[in-house]
Amino acid sequence: MAEKIFPEKYLEALKKFRLIDDTFFSACFDDNAEDVEYILRIILDKPNLKVLKVQTQKSVENIYGRSVRFDVFATDEKNKLYNIEVQRADAGAIPTRARYNSAMLDYHNVNTNEKFKEMPETFVIFITEHDVLEDGEQIYHVERMILETKKIFPDREHIIYVNGSYKDESGSELGDLIHDFFCENPADMRHRQLAKRVEFLKDNKRGVRKMCKIIEDLFAEELAESEKKSKLDDIRNLMETLNLTVQQAMDALKIPVDKQKELRPLI
């Protein structure tokens, strides 16, 4: 069977990917406990941390149908839970989003008969392009505190922000990690363990094939969304111009019944 030739636009898109881009981030760490362990050891300053399992793009839905999709979900040998998110847009990393992700970690992983004291320790980690919390720190550790005593409230729930805009040329592991998240070329990366994975996905034939398939799916999703938006605009224009109902407008445009069910809630 002949090797599939991917369009040049896919290969150009692949060259520009960085670890701060969630699609590439998820691809790099998919089923890759070794490298997730590597970055967690740096961010948490825990050189002996041992990650056992990793899932990417893991969806969790609550009882009301509102879902969250974790970029990376990991567990370690002590049953601690980790959610790592990369966010280029500030709106995707606001404090209430961190609160929601933390709650969904608990919701998904607490068993019916589990005692509260046995609830796992959780970490929600945002690696952000900008300084979302706006205090100029390289890393922010968010903990609940008892205001009267100034003691940490020991609920074993932790939220961490890594500020991608912080420039640290001291050679520290965290500073170099932040630098690497913004490199397009793996040769420019300072953590060689991570660079090897990026090299595989950008330069190795099998890695490129995997990434181009992901990019192909992304382009298809974007096209589908564009077509859906165009169809919704057509329906609304007919309704307004000819004073038609939603059903009349969709019938006039000869939209199939299954598509009508999909579009109707969006109008």
Describe the protein in words.
The protein has 267 residues and is an alpha/beta fold. Helix content is 43%, strand content 19%. The protein contains nine helices and eight strands. The strands form two sheets. Strands 1-2-3-4-8-5 form a six-stranded mixed beta sheet, sandwiched between helices. The termini are far apart.
Largest sheet properties? 6 strands, mixed
Write out the strand line-up for the largest beta sheet, numbering strands in chain order. 1-2-3-4-8-5
Mean pLDDT: 89
Instruction: Assign the structural class, choosing from mainly alpha, mainly beta, alpha/beta, alpha+beta, or little secondary structure.
Output: alpha/beta
- Please report the number of helical segments: 9
- What is the CA-based Rg, rounded? 22 Å
Keyword list:
single chain; 267 residues; alpha/beta; two-stranded antiparallel ribbon
SSE arrangement:
Layout: H1 8-16, H2 22-29, H3 33-44, E1 51-61, E2 67-76, E3 81-87, H4 95-109, E4 122-128, E5 139-142, E6 145-146, E7 151-152, E8 157-163, H5 173-180, H6 192-203, H7 205-242, H8 246-252, H9 257-263
Parallel strand pairs: 3-4, 4-8
Antiparallel strand pairs: 1-2, 2-3, 5-8, 6-7
Give a short overview:
It is built from 9 helices and 8 strands.
